[in-house]
């Protein structure tokens, strides 16, 4: 696709959505900075007093205590120093240069009618034509039939303080063929937000507890369960590994059926009352969350008539209760044809629920690649083909400990997922290249690698792995 951006602008965008521009407030007017200081001061003091009033195991400090005044003065002094201190000239120059860079990118986006946004799952920035977004969004609404257009703005029918209609936007999925869009509903000030959050906090812990034995918390949990599965003799050379997920789970969730399943779920698990509410009351609250969901998209109004809003807290919990879990992993010792028959039967079980599955001796699930090597389990870190080697840029204005944590997290995952020393060493090299690409200094990477391995070797809570060193070149 043609784009109007220069090489330097593309390089700046390649830093990714997690990049924080250094000193963004350096050019703000003094009055703006003072308002920010006042807001942060007031928010902090409010939280402090609330926290101190809820303490039960220590003596409470009266709200009239001079300690609060002393702390307030010191807090304001620290905030003023942080925001008002003049930064060095070299930092001012860099801040100005990056501000101009952002302004030039915004102008080109507007002039050429382009959309810049974060992608689905891969977490990188994507540039697309506005006309393509509008076309794909219209195709999505037409294909799913999940939204009906409204003839007027229903906002005035909603009575609530500081309420806004949910706003629908779309993010691209470059890891899927044709780069389809995923609809997201911004429900921050939606009228049903607090009801949705309340239901999620009430019902999700119940669901998590009841399915704990058959749900994977993460990749490490998956591998631990597989090891126990192997010890029971269920894993041999002919064992197939299978994964499947649900297409458009949020959008295609049938509303009335899912509410009926919610009631059945609570009754089966003897939850006649949850947080003092009866099952009928919970179902009616869930109905409000699903059906009172008018949204704005562009300059038109829609109401979702199938499924729930992706962006509403309770939607995922309700979807999981309806179909159990949208991502499934299992092994099978029957033939591939038998497995396909089973999955095709499941695919025809409900007109709204469609599966996409993978069957073989090697399949990815979550962020793990699971392999059956002639009856021996092998695993490694899985990188999606569309994934970009992007992490928090070292040029970003994040706190320094963030960069250390990013490196240690990547290495920890590699250690836990790698089934052999060779697999780990390959992943370690890939990790190093990834951080070099994101402008991490080589010496800093080496230092963090050494610290990680030193801490790792002294820990008794993790399995042993030999110390990794840079391989020496072979002599001819």
TrEMBL record:
Among Pfam families, the record links this protein to: HTH_animal
- Domain (Helix-turn-helix): give its ranges: 391-450
The record's section on InterPro entries has:
HTH_animal
Superkingdom of the source?
Answer: Eukaryota
Q: What is this protein called?
A: Helix-turn-helix domain-containing protein
Query: Organism source for this protein?
Result: Rotaria sordida
